[in-house]
């Protein structure tokens, strides 16, 4: 009886046993036989390759979407520039870099302008305001009387 037990021990797996490719193949064949699926590709699956005309059509459609996205990005940048210009706080509205968050939240745009102007005050708008002695003056006499000016200075 001990001889029979010794004969069956090689069938028992030990810790240093590693599966071979034949073991993997046998397990795969067993699984295929249980599930009823063969290793061959079924007719229901889609092919790996598509016709050239279909691929070209997809590429053209994708190109149209890329062009629309680029145009949308350009419009967003123009809108950002005009929003900065509308604040009147910068001499050149392109000095503030484009950020999508500025379009979504006016407070973030204002904070970004504040931050930029504290770091670089020379970018601020320098438009003169008030009376600087130029341009059309209201209430000024159209007729200048030189004799009246001399009489006024003499007194």
Describe this structure in words.
- With 155 residues, the protein is mostly helical.
- The protein is elongated.
- It is built from six helices and no strands.
- The chain has a domain at 52-123.
- It starts with a helix and ends with a helix.
- The longest helix is centred in the middle third of the chain and has 36 residues, at 52-87.
The backbone outline, from C-alpha atoms, is: elongated
- Secondary-structure-derived class: mainly alpha
The biggest sheet amounts to: none
The fraction of residues in strands falls at under 5%
| Helix content range | 55-70%
Number of strands: 0
Ends distance: 149 Å
Q: Uncertain spans, ≥5 residues at pLDDT below 50? A: none
User: What's the Cα radius of gyration?
Assistant: 43 Å
What's the order of the H and E elements?
HHHHHH
Give average pLDDT, whole number: 79
Please work out how many helical segments DSSP would assign: 6
